[in-house]
Automatic annotation (TrEMBL):
SUPFAM superfamilies: PLP-dependent transferases
Protein name: Probable cysteine desulfurase
EC class: transferase
Domain Aminotransferase class V per the UniProt entry, residue ranges: 25-396
One Pfam family named in its UniProt record: Aminotran_5
Native organism taxonomy: Bacteria, Pseudomonadati, Bacteroidota, Flavobacteriia, Flavobacteriales
Reactions catalysed, as given in the entry: (sulfur carrier)-H + L-cysteine = (sulfur carrier)-SH + L-alanine
Main function: Catalyzes the removal of elemental sulfur and selenium atoms from L-cysteine, L-cystine, L-selenocysteine, and L-selenocystine to produce L-alanine.
Length: 408
């Protein structure tokens, strides 16, 4: 099946909106995707028909809301092929998922233990580990990248020791779009006796993910980057690890029994879901998965690869323009580049594009270490979703040409 972008676009009301008198060309999908009607309608429908609190009510609405939310957990389970539905923890996003794991493992780590991350990480997969390392006297090691933005696997192998307890890397880089060889990373980590957390924020809308096949110990992502609502995320964790981890936050819903002397915790997944969750969001996430499945991830990936290929080819034709990671082994979903014009930066270009109704992201993309690696303050990033077209890329290229004229 090929992707019918015209039909898909009709399902996204915001894409008909005007920005600065131009119909919006939305190429900031790595930051957050737009939402289709099926998601928007489900959100309002929830509040209109079954709004109530989950897991504690005897009344019908509460039971309905609980049922819907637990059904959504099962849909996520099947989407990433987790073994058990209670290995799916609702969070508020990728960032919270990573912090939850960092906090949950704290008691199990001791001074001198090592954690490996990469030079390609988003700050949310750096800072939680730094904070943990500072609290527990751990050693943080960094996998370097080569000139294409590919992780240097030989160096990674040398970083692994018997003290390595966790490796945390992203599946797809939000700054460069590089797809990391997580199969090998996971395999090598396991051989060394370490667990692996995969930050799937940028892979989940683009690539098929099977956590059992990957043998990932933790896999985290955000709903809002996959056509779903903000304030919702998923932490997948293997049962035996979630069992031994400490709860992240204390409160209602996550306990079995509370006395002033002692609290015992609820079973998985509730041990990690303190307080009233984002009920509407958790329920609606299911609709964004249904949207993706109705098109098929393979078809989506094929369409986005075509966009990436076309964008690379068109941007290459522009003089004084550098594309980063053009020759990386595999890329997905986005292209990162700069105009090589003295005394201009990426946001000057982003500002001009916005005047043409074109939304891109500029700057360091919350990934300052990889910017430093390439000795640049930031890039212009065009990131794709299933509703983008070749015409969007033509408009981007025209906009860049305009920007060039104005800035030269
Ligand atoms: N990791 C990566 C690779 C990301 O792209 C992002 C979002 N830009 C995050 C983590 C953080 O996601 P969130 O803000 O939804 O928690």
């Amino acid at each position: 099946m090929s992707i019918d972008t015209k039909h898909i676009q009709t399902q996204f009301p915001i894409l008909g909106e005007k920005v600065n008198n131009h119909t919006i060309v939305y190429l900031d999908n790595a930051a957050t995707t737009q939402k289709p009607n099926i998601v928007l309608d489900a959100e309002i429908n929830y509040y209109r028909t079954i709004n109530s609190n989950v897991h504690r009510g005897i009344h019908t609405l509460s039971q309905l809301a609980t049922m819907e939310m637990e059904e959504s957990r099962k849909v996520v389970q099947s989407f990433i092929n987790a073994k058990k539905d209670y290995e799916i923890i609702f969070t508020k996003g990728t960032t919270e998922g990573i912090n939850l794991v960092a906090s949950g493992l704290e008691r199990l780590l001791k001074a001198g233990d090592e954690i490996i991350i990469s030079q390609l990480e988003h700050h949310s997969n750096i800072v939680p580990w730094q904070l943990l390392a500072n609290r527990k006297d751990l050693i943080l090691k960094i996998i370097p990248v080569d000139e294409h933005g590919d992780l240097i696997l030989e160096d990674y192998k040398n970083l692994l020791t018997e003290k390595t307890k966790l490796v945390a890397v992203n599946h797809v880089s939000n700054a460069l779009g590089v797809v990391n060889p997580i199969e090998s990373i996971i395999q090598l980590a396991h051989q060394a006796g370490a667990y692996v957390l995969i930050d799937g924020a940028q892979s989940i809308p683009h690539l098929k993910v099977d956590v059992q096949e990957l043998d990932a110990d933790f896999y985290v992502f955000s709903a809002h980057k996959m056509y779903g609502p903000t304030g919702v995320g998923i932490l997948y964790g293997k049962e035996h690890l979630l069992e031994v981890m400490d709860p992240y936050q204390g409160g209602g819903e996550m306990i079995k029994e509370v006395t002033f002397e002692k609290t015992t915790f609820a079973e998985l997944p509730f041990k990690f879901e303190a307080g009233t969750p984002n009920i509407a969001g958790n329920i609606v996430l299911r609709k964004s998965i249904e949207f993706i499945q109705s098109l098929g991830l393979k078809n989506i990936q094929h369409h986005e690869d075509e966009l990436l290929k076309y964008a690379t080819q068109k941007l290459e034709e522009i003089e004084n323009l550098t594309i980063y990671s053009k020759n990386a082994k595999q890329r997905a979903g986005l292209i990162s580049f700069n105009l090589d014009i003295a005394n201009t930066n990426s946001s000057d270009v982003g500002f001009i594009l916005d005047k043409h109704g074109i939304a891109v992201r500029t700057g360091h993309h919350c990934a300052q270490p990889i910017m430093k690696r390439f000795e640049i303050p930031g890039t212009i990033r065009a990131s794709f979703a299933v509703y983008n077209t070749l015409e969007d890329i033509d408009l981007l290229v025209n906009g860049i040409q305009e920007a060039k004229k104005m800035l030269l």
